[in-house]
Automatic annotation (TrEMBL):
Its cofactor is FAD. GO terms for molecular function: prenylcysteine oxidase activity. InterPro entries: FAD/NAD-bd_sf, Prenylcys_lyase, Prenylcysteine_Oxase1. Belongs to the prenylcysteine oxidase family. Residues 1-27 form the signal peptide. This is Prenylcysteine lyase domain-containing protein. It comes from Sphaerobolus stellatus (strain SS14). The lineage of its organism: Eukaryota, Fungi, Dikarya, Basidiomycota, Agaricomycotina. PANTHER family: FARNESYLCYSTEINE LYASE (PTHR15944), PRENYLCYSTEINE LYASE DOMAIN-CONTAINING PROTEIN (PTHR15944:SF0).
Length: 414
């Protein structure tokens, strides 16, 4: 999702927890790198863990004083975390389909740079994936009341006025300008999200909801912006803060890696030279006098000088060390279901009450109808991903992705 990808770098930098036992201070000397390597464990091989391995290895290679020995532990059988793929009809005869983290944007400079340096092919969304072949529809008001193609500028201006549109664009660009300061060498180190948010002047956005943020017309926020926050974060504009609301609008330069984005994270780990333990869950961390004792689900014990926790702590099932120097507060999560299925080239027009028009291949919904006593949309978003790479049982099929708060369908490929 676009919103999730834009914030991925910020999340990556703030969601890793470092446990370390630093050696005593002493003067560096020419033979210092001949000492025993500093052993680092990284728990999690998603975006945060894989990139941490890569950047640490690069820093170690440039250093004349510190040699690192890095090991990565991942409880799943693959590298990439949310960035993973599935195969239509569970057959590798078809091209894989992204299950999550499918798009990132130009503001994600580390991802763009990594893809280029690793020789991966970047592709801009187009056709069905871009919602352009048959248009994008937005459903709001009384369910099915109105559909609108986002590329129809005249209708957008007529319905919302030019001020709301340009104001949203200006606010989004201003947010991006502050966000991009993360990449400056003058940006200070930080110990928590609050500090870096204040430095980047983003607290003004996180302190109020998207719906309440001043300067944009209410109709535009409820009908247009809310469709974007629901597809990216599964939240309505009265519940999500203004930063994520603007992130949802920052789709400029969207791209993805041909063959799946997880290749970036695979390359991070491969090029780091780290030892990788897949299908290995870390069960506990114990602080010793000079090292950390790490116990895995296989009953194996490892000793490390530093540990980076690159997974959501409260979902990790790890018994924390005692005493815990900085308690990690519980984090609320949105329960979102993603359904992939193969179907006809377009949705059925009658479902959207369209009598003489084709249904769009991208449909975003809002909650405005519910607020006025109408029925709740059956899904948050509907997006056609493209045709299968080959016919299935002699017929052409297209991959469709649905997101929503409940499971859609009975499971399995149609």
């Amino acid at each position: 999702m676009i919103g999730g990808s834009l914030t991925s770098v910020l999340v990556l930098l703030t969601s890793c927890h470092l446990f370390t036992v630093l050696p005593g201070a002493h003067a560096a000397d020419a033979s210092s790198k001949q000492r025993k390597p500093h052993r680092v464990a990284i728990i999690g091989a998603g975006a945060a863990g894989s990139s941490a391995a890569y950047w640490l290895a690069g820093a170690s290679n440039r250093s004349k004083e510190v040699e690192l020995e890095i090991e990565v532990f991942e409880r799943e059988g693959y590298i990439g975390g949310r960035s993973t793929v599935v195969f239509p009809h569970n057959s590798k005869a078809f091209q894989p389909v992204e299950l999550g983290a499918s798009i990132f944007v130009t503001a994600n400079k580390n991802l763009i740079r990594a893809a280029q340096e690793f020789g991966l092919t970047l592709t801009a969304p187009g056709g069905e994936l871009g919602g352009l072949e048959f248009g994008m529809g937005r459903v709001f008001g009384s369910w099915y009341e109105f559909t609108l193609c986002d590329s129809d500028d005249a209708r957008l201006v007529a319905r919302y006025g030019l001020d709301s549109i340009t104001r949203t664009q200006d606010l989004t660009q201003d947010m991006l300008n502050h966000y991009l300061e993360l990449y400056n060498t003058t940006t200070p180190d930080w110990k928590d999200v609050a500090r870096i948010s204040a430095f980047l002047n983003l607290t003004r956005l996180t302190s109020q909801t998207t719906e309440a943020y001043q300067g944009v017309g209410e109709k535009y926020i409820v009908e247009m912006v809310e469709g974007d926050t629901r597809v990216n974060y599964a939240q309505n504009t009265d519940k999500i803060h203004a930063l994520e609301g603007l992130v949802s609008e920052a789709a400029t330069g969207a791209s993805f890696v041909a063959g799946s984005n997880f290749q970036i994270f695979q390359q991070f780990v491969q090029r780091s030279g780290a030892r990788v333990h897949l299908n290995t869950e870390v069960k506990s961390l114990t602080k010793l006098s000079k090292q950390w004792l790490l116990t895995t689900s296989h009953g194996t014990l490892y000793f490390f000088d530093s540990v980076i926790l690159a997974v959501p702590f409260h979902l990790s099932n790890i018994t924390p060390p005692h005493p815990f120097h900085a308690p990690i507060p519980p984090q609320p999560y949105i329960h979102l279901h993603v359904t992939l299925l193969t179907t006809s080239p377009t949705p059925k027009s009658f479902y959207f009450h369209l009598k003489n028009a084709s249904a769009p291949v991208t449909v975003l919904t809002t909650s405005e109808g519910v607020a006025h006593g109408g029925p709740k949309p059956e899904f948050n978003s509907l997006t056609y991903q493209g045709p299968l790479s080959a016919p299935f049982r002699g017929r052409e099929e297209h991959v469709m992705l649905l997101t929503g708060e409940v499971v859609f369908g009975a499971g399995g490929w149609g």
